[in-house]
Amino acid sequence: MRLDDHPTVRRAREKAVAAQPAPLLSAEWLKELALRHGAADAGLVEVSRPAIADQLDYIRDVFPQTKTLLAICARMNREPVRSPTRSVANQEFHTVYDDVNHIARAIVTELSDLGIPACNAVAAFPMEAQAPGRTWTVAHKPIAVEAGLGKMGVHRSVIHPKHGSFILLDTILIGAEVEAYDQPLDYNPCLGCKLCVAACPVGALKPDESFDFLTCFTHNYRDFLGNFNDFVDAVVESKDMNTYRKRFSDQETTSLWQSLSFKPGYKAAYCLAVCPAGEDVINPFLEDRPGYVEKVVKPFQDKEETLYVLPGSDAEGYARNRYPHKDIKRVKRAVQTRSVASFLAQLPLAFQRGRAKGLNTTYHWTFTGAEEIEVTIRIADRKLQVTPGHHGDPDVRITADAKTWTRVINRQYSMINALVLRKIRVKGDMKLFRAFGRCFPG
């Protein structure tokens, strides 16, 4: 039988002839579809919107035909998230992650049955285990903001105008255009109360609303995949169980096993738990602010727990001073650096503002060998600026073989040996060079 005569081919071609050009989809119908399948809210963004241009390549990687983004959210129950017993809170997170993925799949199924191409971008973390680097595909937060589902709060999560911080996000990628799109909210539901700052046990959130990513990653995500490398190192390097237990207690080993065997356990997420923003959430805070702090915030502050910090980090000093009743454990940096390019990309995430106090220094870096890169790094007023190329008059010049520098960063080669053998050369005040290192502990 010729292909043209096959019954399936003939029926498909008959349908193609009968099909009409698809009209623009109804925005109201799409959002109603999302609500009908269980979403708490939904909004639409055109894929060409300039505000999400930096996400376009990642969106195309998942679903190249994408023309419209349907942002949805599912609501979490507040009291489980506020429980100091983290297994209770984590169960709520993971249950709602499952819920929002099921909602998205149901939406995609219905759209596909109607001949509308669509793909769920998946709500989970981590999505793509490629650390160091981006550990997710489609970034739901900026899309949700553009879709009018909320604005970013001090705690770096989206706050919904009604449901507050107690939501989880997902995005459906649709291969069709829509007649109308949503716009961001004209106000931020965040109250600026800084209760998230007060509740963070390791000081990752700052009073000036800045954020220390590495500190949050080190503690809150201790039982996630990123820490697995540290566990493997401990197993390989330990000569016996006593040596291993100096790095991982029996309780920590069990906690890591549970997290990897079932679903990852957040150590904190207190910033979300204490947030009073949102129309359905705010009343107890407005009616009795001291009572709200006593009931919601204090249990996290008073909780006896282990806080995980990098040696010499801002978090270590903060935790010891702020929470003397909590155990402090120094841990190793879990993620390896693959290249000079990734080292430079990680600098803003690892920068410790407290350790940069008093520095007003410009560094010219020149990397040679496998990666030929010139970069200017400026540290002043406890702020970091990384600029490609050499600019201005440097206080310190560093020339380093790229492979050697990467090995030093990964603790595979001695900095002293690299300096002695002139694989790393420093021209300028060595105290300023050492001060640079103190700004990036671990």
UniProtKB/TrEMBL annotation:
Coiled-coil region list: none
A Pfam family it matches: Fer4
Record's keyword terms, sorted: 4Fe-4S, Iron, Iron-sulfur, Metal-binding
Regions crossing the membrane: none
Top-level taxonomic group: Bacteria
4Fe-4S ferredoxin-type domain: residues covered: 181-210
Protein name: SCP2 sterol-binding domain-containing protein
Species of the source: Thalassovita aquimarina
